[in-house]
Task: structure prediction
Amino acid sequence: MRQRSELESGQSADIKALIHFANALLQASSAGDAKRLIDPMLAQLCAMTEIELHPEYFGDTEASITPFGKAVSLTTAAQCAEDPERGRVFIQGIYQAIQDKLALNPGRAVRILYAGTGPFAWLLLPLLPLFSASQVQVTLLDIHQASLDKVAKLIKHFQLADRVGEFVCADASLWQPESEQTFDLIVSETMKHLLQQEPQVQIFSHLQAYLGAGGSLIPESIELDAWLDIKGKDLTYLGPLFRLDLPNARLLAQGERSIFAGSLLLPDFHPQAVTLKFTTQVRVYAEHGLAENQSQLTLPQYKKSLWLKPLSRVSFSYQQGEYPDVKFEYIEQNMALVASDDLSCLGIYHLQRLWQKIQLRKRGESFTELANEWHLDKALLDLCGMGLEPGMKVLYQYDNPQEFINAIRQITKLTAADIDGINQHLRDLSQGTVPTQVSLLHPSKVLSDAQLAFWQREGYLVVPQVLSAEQCAQAREFIWQQLDANEQEPATWYQSHAFMQKIMLQLFRHPQLDANRQEPKIRQVFEQLWQRTDLVMTTDRVSFNPPETKTWHFPGPDMHWDMPLQLPVKFATQGLIYLSDTSAEQGAFCCVPGFHLKIEEWLRSQNKSDIELQQQDWSRWPVKPIAARAGDLIIWHHALPHGASPNLAKLPRMVQYINMYPL
Result:
């Protein structure tokens, strides 16, 4: 019911607006309702006090660091009023507390101490016009005189001076009232979630001594709780951390610190990365409270990716000082790195070890790898058909072993026969032996002597028609679909997508792309150039290079090497398949022919770092664009500097990258 004030009659429009605001806010039932009321009132108070709520450059430099926490600046305190549910619940709770105290002692004013007023005395100012001076008497306290000056200006403007007994500039955790003054309500909202940083605990433990008989602290209680989040399971409640209320404030004032510390027993669970979650609940008064996520005060906090030992204890202690906080200690689960022949992850050789290595890296822990283990890691991901980039993404994404297994099973869809073949390859690689099912001496001969001579001389080769026109068309259709673009509508070619990296598209797996990789002729070409048959096919991405326009320009990659620019230079290949007919000016692949024969001498003549060597004036190099037809394979020695080029034609260039390397 609307509370009538004796000030309503004959008062200014501003006072009537404040009374209307207070009555409306007392009736509000949601944060949305509160926000619609608070925003215009807050703007009015800022105008009256000449406060810029969000300065362009603001670092809270006017805050004060006390022995028991940070006392926020005038501006930060003003910004707290923007939290609508906090304001609604506190103001409604304080209003009910005043009414209850008046009901108990109808002939005496309720004595209120508001510690930490900020510039608006936000939690109490709207309520003062609803009560007479004979009903409420307030002491307003803040550590910053500038804030008190703003409050005093508002109190005068709204003609509320008879309700304010005193303005006090002091540290609330140290202040002592004169004589034997006591209060019926002590209001202080000097806190953050998890009671961090600010001095709420010390303020209440100190000021509780000045409560009269039957007096109350506002908020009545602040509860901190701990939870365990195990992926795939319900959130497990571990127990309370600390409660700040009147009984505990009195215990703290008596020197009892044991209530600050304790330990929580963890349940039994399968060893994996888990999350500790900490919540804050605020009971302002009676049924008026703030639950998780309802306010900035009750945002949860997390400690993620913890390898906690099942059935161990998490110890905690609330520590006061210049930065109050809850400190935690826990026992982490040691992860014993398994050998590559551990088949517990889908029966695949080395997969469990690779997943464990990623977990250890994420935890910042060191471990010992075999001499060729990175080669083994890469081969595993390619043999499983995931590819290096997508495979590493999945490895880093899943901390839960079962979720990781499910993801691998969904991505790869490997049969038992596939896994047997993968395992044999990986065992051979790990042991440094020649694969038993292949010969390294007799690769297929699909390249002519002339082609081989060109390869030896130029360091690259165009192999015609490794894919059919139909295969290229189907691959192009997949790319168009992913781009949500139409080949006939150039305006649709330039939309941005999350999977785009310059002209590279992070699209690795599709039935047509997979089928293209399995074309026998592609393998035969690589085998003949490598002169061995124990080669692994990469699972690589595709590329889309549209024509340049006035608003879209070729973003790269420009000319570069994808190899360490150091001696000795080992033999390796790189490759791509044009999926569209590509002329020399159509964003064609470019390289410096023959440089593989010169690179070692060139490197010996340089005295620069790898990064500096990549920064060349390519206009002075004999860069050649390579035109070819859809379905043609371009393969090059990785010592050739290479790159794409600006598309000056009318149609996009589409490419599928492809390569092979030996076990």
Q: What stands out?
A: The mean pLDDT is 93. The chain is about 30% helix and 20% strand. The CA atoms of residues 627 and 657 lie 16 Å apart.
